[in-house]
Amino acid sequence: MRARLAIAATSTIVELREVVLREKPAEMLEASPKGTVPVLVLQDGTIIDESRDIMDWVLSKSGHQGWKAFSDDDLSRMNALVDASDGPFKTALDSYKYGNRDDTVDTSKERAQGAEFIQALNKMLEDQAYLFGDKFSFADAAILPFIRQFAHVDKEWFWSQDWPNVIVWLESFLESERFKSIMSKYPQWKTGDTGILFGA
Fold first, then answer.
1. Residues 92 and 172 grouped into a single domain
2. Is the separation of the CB atoms in 7 and 14 below 8 Å?
3. Cα separation of 135 and 176, whole Å?
4. Are residues 76 and 166 in the same domain?
5. What angle do helix axes 138-153 and 51-62 make, rounded to 10 degrees?
6. H helix count then E strand count, the chain
7. What's 174's domain CATH number?
8. Are residues 101 and 11 both part of a single domain?
9. What's the CATH number where 48 sits?
10. Residue 175: which residues within 8 A CB-CB, separation 6 or more?
11. 106 lies in which domain range?
12. Residue 116 shares a structural domain with residue 174
């Protein structure tokens, strides 16, 4: 989702191939044997198969849309926050989300660990609409999709927690044109199909 956010924000045009992960096409596995999405294949054959790296590439080529128009100090803090989201928080999120597949995983412990990160975000969002002030940033784009995933594991529990600023931040994102514009459903791509132009 966050790669699509960056692509849409910069009007970068890509050929979108929507895949079903339980039916991974050979072309996807050839490009990226790890078999996860998203995967971006550049015209020169370069493969970028991490969503954050795709965001960085898109923003470097097409302008950052104000997402990185911050002081060097804020950008350093922003990268550290996204590192924490991509690292410990994402690990806790995956364990919490998919813990029912592994009896050795304590989902309540993983949820509590994820909640600590969200509480820190809640503190950051006091008296401001976004993580780094009054404008949407790279950090918001990189982290919000993971918060949405965390919330959807148990919506009733999430919305009952004492993190009102995070809830307002998330709900504002979910109601935004920015979010709605990337949520169209696309048909599954199969070998021989023509991809869909996305990002225009």
1. yes
2. yes
3. 14
4. yes
5. 150
6. 10, 4
7. 1.20.1050.10
8. no
9. 3.40.30.10
10. none
11. 72-179
12. yes
Do residues 192 and 134 share a domain? no
Helix axes 90-98 and 138-153, enclosed angle (nearest 10): 20
Query: CA neighbours within 13 Å on the CB side: how many for 5?
Result: 25
Residue type, 134: D
Query: What does the alpha-carbon distance between residue 56 and residue 6 come to, in Å, rounded to a whole number?
Result: 9
- How much is the pLDDT for 61? 85
**Per-residue pLDDT tens digits for 111-169:** 999 999 999 999 999 999 999 999 999 999 999 999 999 999 999 999 999 999 999 99
Q: Are 130 and 124 in contact (CB under 8 A)?
A: no
pLDDT of residue 200: 65
Residues 78 and 174 in one domain: yes
Residues found in the chain: 200
- Joined together, the tokens standing for residue 43 give 């015209």
